[in-house]
Design a protein that fits this description.
2 domains, 45% helix, two-stranded antiparallel ribbon, alpha/beta
Length: 280
């Protein structure tokens, strides 16, 4: 949400929005992959402090590997949005209320054969997907994650199960999608998110690079290798903006390391990642 600061509390509401949408979607909850700000908590399991949090949910729809005309029928999306009380002014960003707090979903796609900024979801009269370059690789081999259905969601859906399974981007897919976002949007949150996962995933920067290489090999997205390399090179200067954003955000979220150490960690993480990617 543009007007809300990222926080752990906002993340809870964002996850509730995802679960609420998915419950209403039923079997169609497998028609998209979660690529946004919920992922770092699952991927960066060695982080010294919790992730900053997120204010929205990014859902990547499987458009783009084939022609738009060959896409699945997304008429179910209209029913879900209406039943969930979601409203939109642009067709791809949808808001609803949870108590007195706003929750947000964003529909995204990576389509190479469509020139407009948004892509219709075939069969849907209400929704479109915002076209962004780069995240298509995240659709390959997603990870099944079990999410709890909170008491807040149960207020609206008392018959919901205790938990549900949803598809999330794997490590390599997330990093490629996040690198694409960092390159195109140049937002501080993307600079932080990307470097948060690089060193703090279970096996560190070298495994992050190997995961990216595996994803690239499986999806034949060769141009993405050059893009993520260019993005990671921006962290190599420990006194630069990108390492600085990572360090400052880590301090804000409670890391007890020094600013200089965090800057150095970002630079070293990027160096290790790039060295491993070159070998992969």
């Amino acid at each position: 949400m543009d007007s809300e600061t990222r926080s752990r509390e906002a993340r809870v509401r964002a996850e509730d929005a995802l679960v609420r949408f998915a419950l209403l979607a039923g079997e169609h909850a497998r028609d998209y992959v979660v690529i946004g700000g919920l992922n770092p908590d699952f991927l960066a399991t060695r982080a010294p402090v919790p992730h900053q949090g997120t204010t929205d949910i990014d859902l990547l729809f499987a458009l783009g590997f084939d022609r738009v005309a060959d896409a699945p029928d997304f008429s179910w999306v209209d029913t879900v949005l209406d039943a969930g009380g979601f409203a939109s002014t642009n067709g791809w960003r949808w808001d609803a209320m949870s108590g007195d707090a706003r929750i947000r979903l964003e529909f995204l796609c990576d389509v190479w054969d469509h020139t407009e900024d948004t892509v219709p979801l075939p069969g849907s009269a209400l929704a479109v997907a915002s076209k962004i370059a780069g995240p298509a690789a995240a659709l390959h081999d997603p990870v099944e994650r079990r999410l709890a259905v909170s008491s807040s969601v149960r207020t609206f859906m008392p018959d919901a199960p205790e938990t549900m399974m949803l598809r999330f981007a794997n490590l390599g897919g997330y990093l490629l999608a996040k690198a694409a976002a960092a390159h195109s949007r140049m937002l501080d949150k993307d600079k932080y998110d990307l470097m948060y996962v690089i060193p703090y995933n279970q096996h560190g920067p070298r495994e992050a690079a190997r995961a990216v290489a595996r994803q690239l090999a499986a999806t034949d997205e060769s141009s993405d290798r050059a893009e993520i390399r260019r993005v990671m090179e921006r962290y190599l200067d420990s006194s630069g903006v990108w390492a600085g954003v990572f360090a400052e955000t880590m301090l804000i979220t409670g890391d007890t390391a020094t600013r200089d150490q965090l800057r150095a960690d970002a630079a070293e993480g990027a160096r290790s990642f790039l060295n491993e990617l070159e070998k992969a």
